[in-house]
Amino acid sequence: MSPLYHELEARWRKLFSELAAGLDCPPTLRLRTEGLMEALVLSGETDVHTLRERMAEVYCECFGNTVADDLGADWVSFYPFPQIPALARRAPVFPSAAH
């Protein structure tokens, strides 16, 4: 694996682990990571299918369940390459008391 591929995995891990912990993640991290994914495919170092599979594995490691479990089996239709399925968990909402 090249240094760029190692960097890509580190970015996925950072992005997904922060989101899984309920933290905010800057959009620049997602966008720059998507650019790196595209660059690796354009350079011929890897292909879209291989990247998606590895990204799904890292997602599962961080969230404890698969992308398909969270977003449905057709998640790829909603996140075409090189988009990353990076969704923050919903914040808890509590009703306010009327005064």
Quick recap of the structure?
With 99 residues, the protein is an all-alpha fold. It has helices at residues 3-20, 27-42, 48-63, 67-71, 75-78.
Could you walk me through the main structural features you see in this protein, from its secondary elements to its overall organization?
With 99 residues, this protein is mainly α. It is 60% helix and 0% strand. It contains five helices and no strands. The longest helix has 18 residues. The protein is elongated, with a radius of gyration of 15 Å. The termini are far apart.
Detail the topology: elements first, then pairings:
Blueprint: H1 3-20, H2 27-42, H3 48-63, H4 67-71, H5 75-78
Helix pairs in contact: 1-2, 1-3
Task: Please count the beta strands (DSSP E, at least 2 residues each).
Answer: 0
The helix tally amounts to 5
Order of helices and strands: HHHHH
The value of Rg in angstroms is 15 Å
Q: Please bin the fraction of helical residues.
A: 55-70%
Poorly predicted tracts of residues:
none
- Main pleated-sheet profile: none
Helix/strand-derived class? mainly alpha
Descriptive terms for the model:
99 residues; 5 helices; 0% strand; elongated
